[in-house]
Amino acid sequence: MKLSQEINKRRTFAIISHPDAGKTTLTEKLLLFGGGIREAGAVKSNKIRKTAVSDFMEIEKQRGISVATAVMSFEYDGRLINILDTPGHKDFAEDTYRTLTAVDSVILVVDCVKGVEEQTEKLMQVCRMRNTPVIIFVNKLDREGKRPLELMDELALKLDIAVRPLSWPINMGQQFKGVYNLHEKNLSLFRPAKTQIEQDRLLIEDLTDPRLDGMLGSDAAALREDVELIEGVFEPFRVEDYRSGSVAPVFFGSALNNFGVRELLETFLQIAPPPASRASDKREIAPDEDRFSGFIFKIHANLDPRHRDRIAFLRVCSGTFRRDKPFLHVRQRKNVRFSTPYNFMAQRKNVIDEAFPGDVIGLYDRGDLKIGDTLTEGESFTFQGIPAFAPEIFKELVSTDPLRSKQLDKGIRELTEEGVAQLFTQEVGNRKIVGTVGELQFDVIRYRLEHEYGAACRLEPLDFSRACWITAATPALLREFTRFRERQIGYDRDRNPVYFGESEWMLRATMQAHPHITFHFTSEFTTQAGQPLAAAG
Ligand code: G4P
């Protein structure tokens, strides 16, 4: 197959949601359609749950929270679909943000009872920042939830994006009868069914069709009214608006009952964008360029406690990745090759010989790769848009076993390279400060340092609440600013200076008092000061 055909075949996306909205259920149902898993009746049983790809880490099993981000690929209707799973828990938001850098589009799941929740708003901000196309799936229609029109208003307002329904529910909860597909003009009737994937579908060319009354009774008239209203209120749907990230199409259904999932999947396949060009520090890289390039967006460490291997997840951006072929590791300026790269078809790891733009592959790594690293077929450039976000909680890492402090240093270095948290060092007392976006990460860090590195530690709370990277027009100005603030200055892993603020107010005051210093809220220094992404919401 030609490279352009391979690219066109692929759709790489993430499913995101506030915890419990139904992301896992929807993912499993999509896998079911694609034959990725077979045990339809047992989708929610422990059996599938235990073998779910995202069940990578011991800690995850212990806590039952999807800590790790995994990839699941399957074929459907001639397309190769790569779903990147994201941890729903808010303490792992940074992991999710980074995963969003590796996808071409997103499906956002919203619970119709709870509406738009806090975590959903934050995730949407990241999508908007990158103009990622978003489809919204309103889930749990088998429950009494908010009225659909009310939900549409809420989605538009809270997610700050124009919305356009492409399907419309006929009642909800106990009275839920089905969904009318506004895009395809057909009606799917609801029959609670956790096991079957087929639904009754009726093609309705014309809503005045009397068969509608026969099936829906008095609800037929209500549906006609709703559809008339929708077509009057909302602009006609245009794929370009969705692909440019300015309009989010909305679907309704019930993932648990396999309802509305096929409509979602089929429309997704029609409208979702194939792998797109990506910005690098030198130029725009098009997927159909002959030469391979890609970047690392995630690292899993110590999957097997007996080996110290790590697995780096690479998103292929252009050309063809080949097994055993030497590629340039741009940051280290050296060639690297991979003898057992693998993909994740049908929930299994398979060693592959080649991979194409849109694919996400796993690479065994002995510590050479970091999040954000670019690999190319010789050219020296670095992909942009894989920033670290300013953490919000800070603790000092203190060794409680001096004999193991070397292991502790190694452990915290490796864990932070993996993206579990960010590490800053302070010159005074060589203090190590760990910054995260959630408390839970500290538990993960302590647990893993102890179990994987045999290093016991204490994490002592610090009264910093904000951090930002700082730059100035001249080194002298920067020196002058940092000189008397030793306690509030640290350095990130690349020795970039970071300012720690005790409160939002203090930070603002410092920013105002020092106009010649620029404060950045992501490591890429692209976000405007004063609009901290991680603090929003
Ligand atoms: P998450 O990954 O977004 O956190 O959500 P997940 O899919 O785990 O779903 C959260 C809960 O919501 C689960 O119930 C799941 O069964 C339920 N759920 C998902 N989709 C629907 C739906 O369409 N209708 C209804 N009524 N419920 C739905 P649980 O009790 O937490 O887990 P389980 O015991 O069912 O596994």
Do you know the CATH topology of the largest domain?
Answer: Rossmann fold
CATH class bucket of the largest domain: Alpha Beta
Mean pLDDT: 84
Rg from alpha-carbon coordinates: 24 Å
Total count of helical runs of at least 4 residues: 15
Distance between the termini: 45 Å
β-sheet strand percentage: 25-35%
Q: Can you describe what's shown?
A:
With 537 residues, the protein is α+β, with helices and mostly antiparallel strands. It has three domains: 14-70 and 105-271, Rossmann fold, CATH 3.40.50; 278-376, Rossmann fold (3-Layer(aba) Sandwich); 393-520, Alpha-Beta Plaits (2-Layer Sandwich), CATH 3.30.70. Helix content is 27%, strand content 27%. The protein is built from 15 helices and 31 strands. A seven-stranded mixed beta sheet has the order 2-3-1-4-5-11-6, with helices on both faces. The protein has a six-stranded antiparallel beta sheet with strand order 18-17-23-14-15-22, covered by helices on one side. It has a four-stranded antiparallel beta sheet with strand order 7-8-9-10, covered by helices on one side. α5 (93-100) runs parallel beside α6 and α12 crosses α13. It is globular and about 80 Å long. It starts with a helix and ends in a 17-residue tail after the last strand. The model is unreliable at 40-69 and 526-537 (pLDDT under 50). The protein binds guanosine-5',3'-tetraphosphate (G4P). Guanosine-5',3'-tetraphosphate is lined by residues 17, 19-25, 44, 88, 139-140, 142-143, 254-257.
